[in-house]
Amino acid sequence: MNLTNLTTETRNQRTLNLDQMSIQDILSIMNEEDQTVPQAIKQSLPQIEAVVTKIIEAFNQNGRLIYIGAGTSGRLGILDAAECVPTFGTEPEMVQGLIAGGMSAMTVAVEGAEDSQTLAKEDLAAIQLTNKDIVVGIAASGRTPYVIGGLTYATEIGAETATISCNTNAAISKFANYPIEVEVGPEILTGSTRLKSGTAQKLVLNMLSTVSMIGIGKVYKNLMVDVKPTNEKLVERAKRIIMEATDCSYETASETFILANEDVKLAIVMILTNSNQETAAAQLVKSHGFVRNTLN
């Protein structure tokens, strides 16, 4: 294994004496280094757009978005997948995250799991990957065998493939139809890719899931109209979303929210089209879930 050509493994010349710096100086340089991440991502926006387009295509044919990764990369994929459920009202199966070593690896490293290509194939087979799905491999180094194994298996069965890495000419890029490479440079703590690399991956994942959900009608204006009101805070947020979307009173929002069986999107369409629950539901089906299209 040769890591010498990976910028994620090289030493940051600004922090060669990191252990001798004051707390203030370390915090300042971390902050300065972090500010370079969005600019690095900006260079990859065309590639990110291509992947979003493919995710939307997968969703529109009832396919799924599957993230695979090891360590920090795998954990970030699982985090993004988990957040889609409450934010966009998706079923847990629609966006999934797989991590080398299984869910126990979320908190404790599983020895050698990331070095197994076979394990990734087994994990994807266990969720019955199909050619309608898209697999996004995540690896800061861009060389993780687990990710390569997963991408290879996905290609074999005809699923779409994409990657997110933090090195150029990454090994995993060769196994994906749509590679995203965001080179953020050396970490302030050499090789600690949970820092800038992790931040870059999180920002890209935010883009992939959020923009894809917008693309299938999960957003009206800039409101999360498919939010799941699973606790008191989210119930109140749901009512506020209805108010913002329709310019109605809190009382009207609360009443319609109940009439719509706590379905925010349905309540919005009921108010905007002055229709009952059944008619509004039919309009949403006809418009493929896009609130705006029910108003035409």
From TrEMBL:
The gene is murQ. GO terms for molecular function: carbohydrate derivative binding; carbon-oxygen lyase activity; ether hydrolase activity. Homodimer. Pathway: Amino-sugar metabolism; N-acetylmuramate degradation; Amino-sugar metabolism; 1,6-anhydro-N-acetylmuramate degradation; Cell wall biogenesis. Belongs to the GCKR-like family. MurNAc-6-P etherase subfamily. One of its GO terms (biological process) is peptidoglycan turnover. It holds the Pfam family GKRP_SIS_N. It comes from Vagococcus intermedius. The active site is at E83, E114. This is N-acetylmuramic acid 6-phosphate etherase. PROSITE patterns: GCKR, SIS. PANTHER family: GLUCOKINASE REGULATORY PROTEIN. Keywords: Carbohydrate metabolism, Lyase. SUPFAM superfamilies: SIS domain. It catalyses: N-acetyl-D-muramate 6-phosphate + H2O = N-acetyl-D-glucosamine 6-phosphate + (R)-lactate. InterPro entries: Etherase_MurQ, Glucokinase_regulatory_CS, MURQ/GCKR, SIS_dom, SIS_dom_sf. Specifically catalyzes the cleavage of the D-lactyl ether substituent of MurNAc 6-phosphate, producing GlcNAc 6-phosphate and D-lactate. Its EC number is 4.2.1.126. A lyase-type mechanism (elimination/hydration) is suggested for the cleavage of the lactyl ether bond of MurNAc 6-phosphate, with the formation of an alpha,beta-unsaturated aldehyde intermediate with (E)-stereochemistry, followed by the syn addition of water to give product. It comes from the Bacteria. Residues 55-218 form the SIS domain.
